[in-house]
Amino acid sequence: MKVATIDQCPVGMLKGVTADGVPVVLANVEGKICALEDVCSHEDLPLSDGELEGNEVVCLYHGARFDACSGARKTLPAVRPVRSYPVEVRDGEIFVDTA
């Protein structure tokens, strides 16, 4: 499902979107678009409110860190990863598969 254009998610930035009713955070890691479920596994708050530092999404609320592309947990207080989704970029448009 198309969720955004590449212009809406510049390098080094996060963007919250919805794909098939699922909240998704897009991360532009040095030109590579990655997609994670937009819910921190620590306290169910939106990761899209946070920041992208290098290749890690940093939750604004309690500082938990996740790999922006795999969703792997990097630091406490999160103890579980977040789900990652396949992304395809075609003609400047970003598509995410949440199935």
Summarize the structure in words:
The chain contains no helices and ten strands. The protein has one domain (about 1-95): Rieske Iron-sulfur Protein. The strands form three sheets. A four-stranded antiparallel beta sheet has the order 2-3-4-8, with no helix packed on it. Strand 5 and strand 6 (about 55-60) form a beta hairpin. It has about 100 residues and is an all-beta fold.
CATH topology value: Rieske Iron-sulfur Protein
Provide the spatial order of strands within the biggest beta sheet. Answer: 2-3-4-8
Q: Specify the structural class.
A: mainly beta
What portion of residues is helical?
Answer: under 10%
How much of the polypeptide forms β-strand, as a percent range? 35-45%
Could you state the order of secondary-structure elements as H and E? EEEEEEEEEE
Mean pLDDT: 97
Number of DSSP helical runs: 0
Extract low-pLDDT stretches: none
Distance between the termini: 10 Å
Main beta sheet strand tally, sense and closure: 4 strands, antiparallel
What would CATH call the homologous superfamily? Answer: Rieske [2Fe-2S] iron-sulphur domain
> Whole-number radius of gyration?
12 Å
**Shape, per Cα inertia axes:** globular
Q: Which second-level CATH architecture applies?
A: 3-layer Sandwich
Any idea of the CATH class?
Mainly Beta
Number of beta-strand segments? 10
Total count of domains: 1
